[in-house]
Write a structure and sequence with these properties.
With 358 residues, the protein is of the alpha+beta class. The chain has helices spanning 44-52, 94-104, 109-122, 138-150, 168-185, 196-202, 220-225, 230-235, and strands at residues 4-13, 18-28, 33-37, 59-64, 67-68, 79-82, 156-160, 188-193, 205-210, 213-218, 240-248, 251-253, 259-261, 276-281, 287-288, 300-310, 314-322, 325-332, 342-346, 352-356. It folds into two domains: 2-230, P-loop containing nucleotide triphosphate hydrolases (Rossmann fold, 3-Layer(aba) Sandwich), CATH 3.40.50.300; 237-354, Nucleic acid-binding proteins (OB fold (Dihydrolipoamide Acetyltransferase, E2P), Beta Barrel), CATH 2.40.50. Helix content is 23%, strand content 34%. Bound molecules: adenosine-5'-triphosphate. The site of adenosine-5'-triphosphate has 14 residues, from β2 and α1. This is ABC transporter ATP-binding protein.
């Protein structure tokens, strides 16, 4: 277990002149499951490769505990990395793939047998020792890759989009497995993904990145419920972001004059009267008005259902509440509504988050 500190890290790729990592500061606590989350190209993999030692930063420092590892070779760092494509050796059996890292470290045959057996049990691959990678399913190959990383007892586990080659059901299964193993071993883990749902379900804390910078760090609940800016807010789920004019006293008006009482996303922020603002409302927080007791005088809007999508226990409705102003809502499927119906919607004030438009 080790604490990882990234201090003012910067990395520019000479060829592309891209600033992949831009003054990045992060602390990952001992034993923590920490995720770097962000859209493609935001610098997640580069950050992970800097931590592993596959890349050297132009500026900044990397500490493992008190140890400065910024310029150490990858094999001196005590980390292990699992790659998206597994990178298993096709000509080696499962046993040989997993044992390889111990062999090159000159561990005794007896100890190798013991540790490979233990780790294959941990990843639930007992009995598969003699198979070759092409005789395994994608999920099993992923388990071998994980076993190969864990067998060397790294102080830090690095996972780069390890589930992206698996189908949806297997992804969820393996996600739970990785979390179980991480909890059992209590190993500090840094996970890279662009999948917000995966990041929220697996992480103790996460960092949302964009264009080489960290925009927000927090628990999944913190970044979901208290996003610091509109980018972070819109990265999670499929929120409604509607434009409005601030009228003063926490009231904003939509076009056609519908008034919305808002809560501000950030403490201390002030809006001027007449200022254009953006209001974030999550579909699952909108309540069909007829169904629930009225909880406020404010924020009841009427509209027409223009699209309906059945998703199982819930239905997604697109409701036109003004000219070209739409609200997506997610409400239980047993609530009967069809395209063309008029519906009343209540937007709880505490569920609105208002941001400056810029
Ligand atoms: P993805 O999710 O698509 O893997 P990412 O968030 O992991 O993306 P990086 O792979 O770290 O992002 O890339 C960050 C930026 O650096 C991108 O603009 C990318 O094009 C650029 N980049 C990455 N590797 C190199 C390289 N070896 N040479 C030049 N530019 C690179």
């Amino acid at each position: 277990m080790v604490k990882v500190e990234l201090k003012e890290l910067k990395k520019t790729y000479e060829k592309s002149k891209v600033i992949a990592v831009d003054n990045l500061n992060l602390t990952i606590n001992e034993g923590e499951f920490f995720t770097l989350l962000g859209p493609s190209g935001c610098g997640k993999t580069t950050t992970l490769r800097l931590i592993a030692g596959f890349e050297i930063p132009d500026e900044g420092k990397i500490f493992f505990g008190d140890e400065d590892v910024t310029y150490k070779k990858p094999y001196e760092r005590g980390t292990a990395m699992v790659f998206q494509n597994y990178a298993l050796w096709p000509h080696m059996t499962v046993f040989e793939n997993v044992a390889y890292g111990l062999k090159v470290r000159k561990v005794s045959k007896e100890e190798i047998n013991k540790r490979v057996t233990e780790v294959l049990e941990l990843v639930k691959l007992k009995g598969m020792e003699k198979r070759y990678p092409n005789q395994l399913s994608g999920g099993q190959q992923q388990r071998v890759a994980l076993a190969r990383a864990l067998v060397i007892k790294p102080r830090l586990l690095l996972l780069d989009e390890p589930l992206s080659n698996l189908d949806a059901k297997l992804r969820v299964e393996m996600r739970e497995e990785i979390k179980r193993i991480q909890r059992e071993l209590k190993i500090t883990t840094i996970y890279v993904t662009h999948d917000q749902e995966e990041a929220m379900s697996i992480s103790d804390r996460l960092a949302v990145m964009n264009a080489g910078k960290v925009l927000q760090v927090g628990t999944p609940e913190e970044v979901y419920f208290s996003p610091k800016n509109i980018f972070v807010a819109s990265f999670f789920g499929k929120p409604n972001i509607i434009e409005a004019i601030y009228e003063g006293d926490d009231i904003a008006s939509l076009d056609k004059g519908t008034k919305i009482k808002i809560s501000k996303a950030e403490e201390g922020v002030t809006f001027a009267k007449g200022e254009r603002i953006r209001i974030l409302i999550r579909p699952e927080h909108i309540i069909p008005y007829e169904r629930k007791e009225k909880i406020s005088e404010f924020n009841i809007v009427k509209g027409k259902v223009v699209f309906k999508m059945f998703t199982g226990t819930m239905q997604e409705l697109k409701v036109e509440i003004g000219e070209n102003v739409f609200l997506y809502t997610l409400i239980p499927s047993d609530y009967k509504l069809e395209v063309g119906d008029t519906v009343g919607l209540q937007i709880p004030v505490e569920r609105t988050l208002a941001f400056k438009a810029d």
